[in-house]
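Table 4 source record.
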Amino acid sequence: MKNFTLSSNDLQSQMTKKHVFDEFGAGGENLSPHLKWENAPEGTKSFLVICYDPDAPTVSGWWHWCIANIPASITEFESGIEEYPENAVQGLNDYNKLGYDGACPPPGDPAHAYHFTVYALDTEELDIEDGTQPAMIMFMANAHILAKSTITSYYGR
């Protein structure tokens, strides 16, 4: 059996300005990266996609992106996606917005790690709505995770 994998046409080990936040002096384009996942385990009924920075100068890291209830038939997001699949739910990121908002580490910090992760879930939908906090979404998803795959990209300024 093949492993559940996540790949990207445009994420490398070092993040480019394309995926960096466009406010707070970060000067990026704020586009979500292309993501493609393959070989979901048997029983997968939906996916959850997140971007999380554990290196943010907070006690809880920083959520950049959280999209849940992605139908099992969807296995790819194009770069800069703005319209999500029907029934998908957008978690509230730590910029207090829905959708993707990119990297924005404080100037002078060592490069932060940005973990892009896709989870294969055994349920068609989590009982959540747009604007739910990612920590709650992850709590709700925890009992339904069949597999996960992560790409880590770094950025500092």
